[in-house]
């Protein structure tokens, strides 16, 4: 598991990107675009050029370095302008990202290859993490100043801040056709003392809209569906789900593992919890108080947050349990089938 560090993003990649864009813009101003476009569309070999351009446009997300551009775009889109403070209920809200299946992502069954879902997940998770937790990551990344993360001896932990992907599970329900548009709905599912779990639904584009947005208006909304007894059933939104994935992230300061609750708390998304707080107790997720009766429409307090965290953990703990499958590897103790080329 490699841990990517955002410490390199600001001092290295951002200046390089700005310098590259500045040089490209300077050169673009000096070009005679009308002559170039006319020659491109009418000059010798125009058919090949137009077909090549069309191919690149339809497959841009599969081109070299396209994945890097997509992921880095999420960093710059959310982190360069400092993210606003979200309401605490936004902790379990979805972030939406849209995409479209390129021709190069299509397999021999003439639909989106299962392997390509994971590059889309990288982009969707990056948007969620940097938008929702960007404020917290900035605070934890400057731990020498804010002193939020301490080791067992009470010393301030030093090191570059990074995020590592530990595992991904994906369940496929429907196929996605070539050039078909779809959306990725990602949200925080749960967390424990080490991992932040994120669930992502691949959804048919245009079929589902949230009832509102936490920030400025970003698109159309829908009326909230009312739950009634003995009346019309609540609409089953899962019928629009194409696939569902669960991922787990780990936060690092150097080689030191940062409790996810510290990042979430630094982002202003955790209400105060009594007792040992969100990082105490045997499980490292807080003291085991009984939740008691909850008012689903009431205040978004620590009980509401803990209830949602526990609901998510019912699914996340199964993904965490799969870490033990590493012990099943026996190195071919009883032999192997064969060694094959072109892997």
TrEMBL record:
Keywords: Membrane, Transmembrane, Transmembrane helix
UniProt keyword Glycosyltransferase, yes or no: no
Alphabetical list of SUPFAM superfamilies matching this protein: Thioesterase/thiol ester dehydrase-isomerase (SSF54637)
Source taxon at top rank: Eukaryota
Chain positions covered by the region annotation Disordered: 274-295
Membrane-spanning residues: 48-72
PANTHER family cross-referenced by the UniProt entry: PROTEIN THEM6, PTHR12475
Family of the protein in this entry: Belongs to the lcsJ thioesterase family.
Protein name as catalogued: Capsule polysaccharide biosynthesis protein
Species this protein is from: Canariomyces notabilis
